[in-house]
Each structure stands twice: as C-alpha cells, then as structure tokens.
Amino acid sequence: MSVNEKMVQDVVKEVMAKLQLAAGASEGKGIFADMNDAIAAAKKAQRYIHRMSMDQREQIISNIRRKTKENAEILARMGVEETGMGNVPHKILKHQLVAEKTPGTEDITTTAWSGDKGLTLIEMGPFGVIGAITPCTNPSETIICNTIGMLAGGNTVVFNPHPAAVKTSQFAVNMLNEASIEAGGPENIACTVGKPTMESSNIMMKHKDIQLIAATGGPGVVTAVLSSGRRGIGAGAGNPPALVDETADIRKAAGDIVNGCTFDNNLPCIAEKEIVAVDSVVSELMHYMVNEQDCYLASKEEQDKLTATVLTPKGLNRKCVGRDAKTLLGMIGVTVPDNIRCIVFEGEKEHPLIATELMMPILGVVRAKDFEDAVEKAVWLEHGNRHSAHIHSKNIDNITRYAKAIDTAILVKNAPSYAALGFGGEGFCTFTIASRTGEGLTSASTFTKRRRCVMSESLCIR
Ligand code: NAD
Q: What are the residues facing 453 on neighbouring strands?
C-alpha cells in the first residue's frame, strides 16, 4: 500500500469515528440513556460471560487488544481534542501499552493445598457487575484497561466516566462491545450512560446489582466511593517526588526525570511532580536539565505569574492541566522555542507549584541539606497519599530507607516514572493504581472474590 493510500484510509477512519459520535453517542454499543438500564444490560451480559470458558474470555480480550492497537491514534486524538489535555504521540503509546501489557486470564490462578486431609483450593470468582468511575486524564486508557482486567475475572462493567471526556469514553465502550461481538461474546460487556453526572454516579454506587466499585480519580471520588457502603477500590491522587542523592548518575537522572515528568504533559498520576535533591548535586542537576534536557529556568517573577495563572482559589485552573510547557509559558507572556518541554526552578517545599499536584510539566527542585533531610521533605510532599515516589541513587541502603519511609504503591529507581507501568521496565500495565485502599497496581485478580473449595479425606493421591 502506498503512503498516500494509507493516509487517506486513516483520515476516512477518523472522520467516520467522529461522524458516529456526532450522530449521537446513544447510537453506540453499550451506551444507555439511563444508568439503571446500563446496569441491567451489563448484568445480562455477565451471566453470559460467566458461562463462557476461560479460553472464550481470552479470545474476546485478544480482540480488544487488536482493536485498541488499531484505534490507538483515533483514541489519542479524540482524547486530546475533547479534553484539551496531553499530547497525541504519548497517548498513542499509552494505548499500545494497555493493549500489550494489561494482564488477561493468565492472572486468574488457583492456590491449592493437598495433604492427608484432602484437597483445598482457592479459586478466584467474579463479583458480577462492577461499577467504575474513570478520570479525564487517561479516559479511554483506563476504560480499556479496567475492562480487560474485569472481563478476565468474569465480570462485566458499568462506567460513569468524567463528563469532560464523555465522547472519548463512549467511543472506547463502543469499541469494547464490538470486540466482544466479533469474537463471539455478548454485547454490553462494558456499558455507560449518554450523559454521566453525579446523579448517575450515585445511582450506580447504590444499585443492588453493583457488588464492587473501582474509582480512579482525585481524593473526592475515592472518599465518595469509600463512604458508599459498598466494597470499593480507591485509586486516588498522588504527588510523586523524585529524590536525587549524591551517588546518582546526575546526567542520567536529569534525563529520566524530565522524560517521566513531560510524558503526556505530566498527566499520569505516577509522573514526577517535583524533585528533592541533596545540596551537593542541585547545581549539576539544574545544569543538565536546562542545557541538555530542554527545560526553561523560571525566574521568581515568572514563578509568581505561573502560580497566579495555574492555581485559582478553588484549586487547579483546569485550562492549564495537561498543557505543554510552551503553552503554559505563553499564558504568562513568555515566548520560548518549540523544543522547551519543561519548566524548572528552585523553591521551598511549601511553594504552591511544588506542594500541589499540578499535572503540568512544571518541576520545582527542593534543596535538602543531606539524605535524611531529603527523605523527610519527600515524605512531606507525597502528602501521605502512599501513591508513587521515585529515587535516583546507587546506594542500596539509601534506597531502602527511602522505600520504607515513603511507603508508596510504586517506587521507581534510576528510571523515568513510566517504567512502573511496564514502559521501559518489567511488569504489567495498569491505569488504576489503588493507592488508598492498598491493592496497589490493579489487574484481573484484583477484580475477583477468593473462594475456598474443600474436598475432605479424598483427592489427595500422593
Ligand atoms: P477527578 O477526581 O476530577 O475525576 C475523576 C472521576 O471522579 C470523574 O469521573 C469524576 O466525574 C468523578 N468524581 C469526582 N468527584 C466525585 C464525587 N464526589 N462523587 C462521584 N464521582 C466523582 O479527577 P481527574 O481530573 O479526572 O483525574 C485526575 C486525578 O485523578 C488526579 O488527582 C490523579 O492523581 C488521579 N488519578 C489517579 C489514578 C490512580 O490510578 N491512582 C489514575 C489516574 C488519575
């Protein structure tokens, strides 16, 4: 196929996708006007899924993986266009990662004890219909990732997505159901509503057929879910510090931290949000960030203007979240070349651009007098979220002390934060990191119930 032919095909595909949405989201598969209807449809589909073999479930998941890769660019473009946040090339990578590295049915395993008294198994069974709340920062990535894991565990899912990412979320739900039907599965493995609201969210959280709620988002939603009286998986906010000590390869640390921080314009909850560096390495680190890593060093006056622009009395200025560094600097009247990808400065840990989870490529550097002081400052900056933290050090004792003190679900050593999602690091991918409720990086097994199956006095054949 010639390049031109491929380009035309891609454009046609994209236009068709947009027309489909413009025609009304309720036309899509799995999209309902009423939350109660969405739950009823998901319940019906779950009965079907539960009867299917693990192999049949895996066939649907394989097709979801294939379609996610095929639609990665469309989903990435839609996400950026609809939310105004993030960037297309990185969102394409995120979708490819979800498709390739989200665990499927292989994550559902059996534990067995066999002995004189017989055989006992722990089997992982489905909850049924799971209610999921998803963020606008990784909208379709979270929906696809959640669905693969929940389906592998034998569940179906009803989403109440963020209203700012409703079209992208609905496109993903539609694609998931198409994948199921094409692979011989039922419609409505994933469902949602045409207009998600707090009301539809409340209906979902209180519905008798929802056995488990998985909430991915800021502190508000996790608290709401944990107060609902249902079992909840709470994947909440973070403010990950990157600690740099005097044993680190400072040049590499500068590159890794800026790469992690600027990925998808700092939207991932795991991304480096600030640096804490010991006194002796601060100048060298700053030198590499500014001279080799395309960072812009903001003056005190520019920091004040940025603070007044990106923060409002009510919190984050949503028009600034997920924007690139050049755009943010443009908002305060500073023009920089296109290559500038991050804004850096030195400040105290209490600086509002450092203490707040901004989700913007703005990296404040906090100076610590020694390693102990650095750990104390980093722990303070993580705000007890127990979410993610990073360290650049070759001293194993230091790494261990930091890990114990900060106690986060994720701790990346000597790499960009995204290594934690299996991108340039080992391990599986997830977009729901259950920091508050302790499940950590969720996968299919997280969405199952443990059941004990006992056969007494027999079936032990040793
Ligand atoms: P958000 O909290 O504004 O919204 C997340 C979801 O929760 C949306 O669907 C929203 O409609 C809903 N919501 C918000 N308050 C609610 C309430 N009181 N009751 C019911 N539903 C409610 O977050 P966002 O801006 O979409 O995403 C960014 C935030 O999410 C950041 O804090 C980030 O750290 C966090 N996040 C965490 C993870 C994780 O895995 N731990 C992943 C992605 C994002």
A: 121
Query: What six digits make up the tokens of 392?
Result: 């650049």
Packing angle between helix 166-182 and helix 54-70, nearest 10 degrees? 130
**What's the 113 CA to ligand 1 centre distance in angstroms?**
41
Strands 311-312 and 315-316: antiparallel
Residue 313 has pLDDT above 50, yes or no: yes
Smallest CA separation from ligand 1 atom 3, residue = 218
Q: What are phi and psi of 51, to 5 degrees?
A: -80, -20
Q: Whose CA is nearest to atom 41 of ligand 1?
A: 235
Q: For residue 355, how far is its CA from the centre of ligand 1 (angstroms)? A: 19
Q: Is the CB of 266 under 6 A from ligand 1?
A: no
What would the pLDDT profile of 125-184 be if each residue is shown by its tens digit? Answer: 999 999 999 999 999 999 999 999 999 999 999 999 999 999 999 999 999 999 999 999
Give me 450's structure tokens. 């443990």
> Is any ligand 1 atom within 6 A of the Cβ of residue 161?
yes
Residue 277 CA, ligand 1 centroid: distance in Å = 30
* Beta carbon of 221 within 6 Å of any ligand 1 atom: yes
Taking CA atoms, 164 is separated from 167, 285, 400, 432, in Å, by 8, 37, 40, 19
DSSP state string for 308-368: HHHEETTEE-TTTTT--HHHHHHHTT----TT--EEEEE--TT-HHHHS---SSEEEEEEE
Average pLDDT over residues 189-201: 98
CB 375 within 8 A of CB 291: no
222 alpha carbon to ligand 1 midpoint, in Å? 8
Q: Are 347 and 353 in contact (CB under 8 A)?
A: yes
